[in-house]
Design brief:
Elements (H helix, E strand, L loop, with lengths): L2 H11 L3 E6 L4 E4 L1 H7 L3 H4 L4 H4 L7 H12 L3 E7 L4 E10 L2 E8 L1 H22 L6 E3 L5 E4 L1 H7 L3 H4 L13 H14 L7
Antiparallel strand pairs: 1-2, 1-5, 3-4, 4-5, 6-7
């Protein structure tokens, strides 16, 4: 077995798609996994133009980024959804003197998880912002990292004016020490402090 055949066999064993195009956008290599992901036999694509095989991609995000990679000679990394396959791919496009090589991974499940997390965060944000009492979260430096709408109303400040800052400036000078000590106790001793 020659080196080229051994390399092809090795590339067929990787778990992600690998495709190469020449300067005319014709397939010069496609591994087994890429064929599985796009529903085509690899040997049936060799020598064929990608834009003839997948005309729906012309003018879309991937098409534009592939051309950008070739034009700028810079590697591009991005995610794109392919409706034809109902798959989200994470793609790395590597330009070279002979054309372009793509390495792509199916990230559909990860994308779905991210979307669920975003939806959950929005739901939690809505719940917390509809609580009538002020709610806030501080970091270990007493800087506010989250506040709800009621908190903003009480202090008559916007979230942009509050996030990342401490409230010691909004406390009377004689109360600042006590204010910071309460934060320290909560962090170090895991005490719960309820203001009257």
């Amino acid at each position: 077995m020659c080196i080229r055949d051994r390399l092809g066999t090795a590339l067929d064993l990787i778990s992600d798609g690998l495709v190469s195009y020449d300067k005319n956008w014709c397939y010069t290599f496609i591994n087994k996994k890429a064929g599985e992901l796009i529903g085509k036999e690899p040997h049936m694509l060799l020598g064929k133009n990608v834009w003839t095989e997948f005309p729906e991609v012309v003018g879309q995000k991937s098409y534009n980024i592939f051309h950008k990679a070739v034009k700028t000679r810079e590697t591009q990394k991005f995610r794109d959804y392919y409706e034809r396959f109902d798959i989200w791919f994470e793609i790395r496009a590597y330009p070279h003197s002979e054309g372009l090589t793509l390495y792509f991974t199916d990230v559909t499940e990860q994308k779905k998880t991210e979307e669920l997390l975003i939806a959950s965060e929005k739901n939690l944000d809505n719940i917390i912002n509809n609580i009538g009492d002020p709610v806030f979260v501080k970091d270990d430096k007493s800087r506010l990292i989250f506040v709800n709408n009621s908190f903003c109303e009480v202090f008559n400040l916007s979230k942009n004016d509050i996030i990342g800052k401490t409230l010691e400036d909004n406390v009377a000078p004689e109360e600042r020490e006590s204010f910071l000590n309460i934060d320290k106790q909560v962090l170090e001793l895991s005490l719960i402090h309820i203001s009257e």
